[in-house]
Design a protein that fits this description.
about 120 residues, disordered N terminus, mainly beta
Length: about 120
């Protein structure tokens, strides 16, 4: 008698299968506070934080903080500062060092970032 109530229902998704799309791993530089150790254009001590939802936080001990955006996909990494988009190359990424090269107009900007002191 109750069988007709369930006739239009589809079968549930198996518990181990919730999506057919693979999840991308979060890059290891995300959600960490990085401090500029050396650069050809950025002052040492400036802080960079790449938040997981795409916000870029830049803070300087001697200047005004700024917000930007960042995104990374399979082949590109882009940072947007003051509404200007820059292609970025990751030169090195370990737990203790994050070296990047930003393709700015003129000479590229290279930065070596290290975890900020707590």
């Amino acid at each position: 008698m109750m069988g007709w109530l369930f006739a239009g229902c589809s079968s549930p998704v198996p518990s181990g299968q919730t999506s057919t799309r693979p999840r991308r791993a979060t890059p290891s530089f995300v959600n960490k506070v990085w401090s500029v150790q050396s650069s050809n254009a950025v002052a040492p001590g400036q802080l960079y934080v790449f938040l997981s939802e795409g916000t870029l936080v830049i803070a300087s001990p001697n200047g005004t903080s700024a917000l930007g955006r960042w995104k990374q996909d399979v082949q590109t990494f882009t940072m947007v500062e003051e509404s200007i988009s820059y292609a970025v190359e990751i030169l090195e990424l370990t737990q203790d060092r994050f070296r990047i090269r930003m393709r700015n107009p003129g000479e590229p900007v290279e930065m070596t970032l290290v975890p900020a002191a707590e």
